[in-house]
Every structure is written in C-alpha cells, then in structure tokens.
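Researcher: Next entry in the queue.
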Amino acid sequence: MRSIFKYFLVFNLLMEFGFSQVQKSNALTRILFVFDASNSMLAKHQNMSRIEGAKILFHKFVDSLSKLKNYQFALRMYGHTVKYPPGDCNDTKLVVPFSAKSNLDLIKQKVDEAKPTGITPIEHSLTEAANDFPDAKARNMIILITDGIEECGGDPCEARHKLMEKGIVFKPVIIGIGLTPAQIKTFECVGTYFDFDDEKAFMNITTLIQTQKLKKTSAQVNLLDSKGKPMETDVNMTFYDIHKKKYMYNYIHTLNKNGNPDTLYIDDYPTYKVIANTIPPKESEETKLTEGKHTTIPINTPQGSMVITRPNGVYNFNEKVKYIVRHSNQLQTLHVQSINTWEKYIVDTYDLEILTLPRTYIPGVKIEQSKQNEIVLQNAGMLQVKCLEAGDGSILLKIANRLERVVNLSNATIQTFYLQPGNYVIEWRSKTLKGSIYTIEKKFNIQPDQATVVELYK
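Model: Structure for this entry, 458 residues:
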C-alpha cells in the first residue's frame, strides 16, 4: 500500500514562507510542478479523495504565486494516460512548458482535468524533468506532488545528478503517514521527510521553509603541500559515493584567479571520499557535506617532479626509452614514464628501473616539495652484428668476472642494438653446425654515441 502524503500543509508553508525568501531577488526563478496523477490518488483521505484535496490546495497555492514577479512556471504529469494495471513506466509528459507569459490558468486547467489512472514512475519523471528547463541561468526548482513511492524499479537518487547539472534546486518537503522504515529510506536522497504523526513536525517544517534559501551546496578540495598550504593543483580528482561504491564526479583540480581552490557545486546527499589521482594516489577522509553550506576537503598531496634525460646524442632512439617507477624497496609498479618528459610525484623516495639494454637501476631517488629532480643518463652506443647465415646467440654484459645476459640474437644476418656503455661478449653458433664446440665468442666495448660492428664470420 502506498503511503499518504499531506499536500496542503506543504503548499501553505511554501506559500507563506518559502517564496517570500526569494521574492526579494530580481533573478528569474523557474518552478516546475511534477504532479502525480496515478491510480492511488483515487483513495480516500479524510472526507475526500487525495486528488480532490490536492486540486483544491493546488489552486490556492498557484493563486498566491500569480502575484510574484519574475517567475515562470511549467507542469509535468505522470501516471495520467495509461490505466493501471498494468500501467506504463514511461507515462510522464511535460503538459505545460515554461513561458515568459503567464500560463498559470492553463496549468490549473490541466490539473483540474487530471484523472488518476496509471502507475508511479518517479525516477523517470524527474530525469525527464531535467530537460524541461531551458537553461541553468535562472534559479530552477522542482516541486514534487505525490502520494506514493517509486513503482517502476527506479531510484530517485539517480535523477538528482541530472537535475543538478541543469542548476535545479530539488529539495521537496515530504510528509508521510504510516511509512515503514524501508519506505522512509527511499526518500532520504529525494528531500526532507517528516512524519505527520510527529507533534513537532509542523514546527520543524515551518523553521525549515523560513530559513531555506536557493543556495547550492558547495565544496572545495585543498591539495596540501608539505607545509599544509593548498598550493598543489592541476590534478585529476574523483568523488566516490562510499555507500554505493561508485564514482559521482570527476574533475581536474584548478586554482581560481585569486590562487585559491575553485568552488564545486555538488550533491549534498552522498558521503564522499575524494581520490586525488597523483602518483601514487592520495585520498581524503570520508566527508559528508552540509546542505546549503561550503565544505573544505583537505588531501595531503605534496609533490615534486622528476625527469630522466640524455645528453644531446647522435641517435634519435634515445627518446623511445621508458622507465618504471616504484616506491623504494617495493615491487609494485607506480608509473611507467618516458625519458625527456617531466612528471610529478608525491614527496617520497623511489627506485627506478630504466628499460635500456641492459637495464639501468637507480635506487633511492628522492622527490622533494616543488623541486625538479633531473637525472642524466649516459647516451647509448650502437652495435651492429653481422653474420653470413642464421644462428643462435646472445649478448652478455661483463661485470667483473661474471656475465649477465642482455638480449638474445635473432636469425637475421644483420642486427642492430642500442646498448649502454660497457664491456660485452657475444656468444653465437651457426644453425648448420650441430656442435657446441662451434660456438663463436666475440668481445667488444660500447662507448656513448659511437658505433661498433661485430662480424661473426671472421
């Protein structure tokens, strides 16, 4: 059984208090009525049906609004065309669009003509309502008039985000009778719920409407440096709803013209965790915003930058080399970076594995706040290996009295490699010679920016 809602108290309070707060402003305000004309509106409440009571009070409410200046109005209905059962979950329509000219008489007429018949698609109606507003330049507001809960498997919370993108203030007052805890919970993200049986409810609603302003909830993310100042910026940041375990917003952080973190207007309902996608990522504490207020979300993200460069060499291949960045003494890869490109990292100590031939390892690289750490890597030399026929072989690096494999040779008769400076050995055997004793060994040295040719047939 769908719950019963008291329209007339909400309407009278809005009429008496809510709109007196915004009437002082010259800004254009648009109000969209989303009116429930579903089958349950035929049910009795007190001495009349719910739809009759709603229409009477709707007339009084609209008559009071007709006296206000710089307002525009529109009407959307749902559940009014397809009979229930079975009903149609797409049964919602903008009946009277916004108009610069007065259209309240037409809106009242359409409400008078409404005959409850269908089902209750709240989420779909609100999502469609986001497209009813011409733009976000005005103060856009929705008043939801309903006696029931979502019947089409939708989630009204999901509609909030599209409404906010249109600059719509969507915080209707909901007064319910006899709702179960589960039913009440479905409206937590929709608006402010009051129980009709609570003796203090009406006093609380009066206070709420008197103090309610068309002020958006806002937040700023302070990316703190090592001195605790919000000077870090230009970082991707993602807002996660920790209860639904999904992301809600994704932005590139910036500082405004005054050098302060810019202001974001976001939904106040979810509890957020903000991830700053630095290298490595850093996250905020769990944060619950306060409706109509500004909240600062700090994240410790002190950063410096790092680059690996080579001296100007004779080979263009240098620019293709990449390197792996890890936390010091840890195996997990944090990032893969190309040489000759700058990248920011959280202040810490890192180990580098440069994908040269052979690998170059640089442990204990310190990143400091706002400092640029440039590491100069020796230029490679070029090795050309020539042979008369296909064979098997390897290039090995000589370190003291040990040999370490660098790379295997292919079957090509001419092969080119770019190797870091050092002493090397090639071990090679022709495929036509089926004995290990036919292995050829060639020793050679690689110098930066110099070419070395090894011929395996001499």
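Model: The two ends are 95 Å apart (CA to CA).
Researcher: Noted, moving on.
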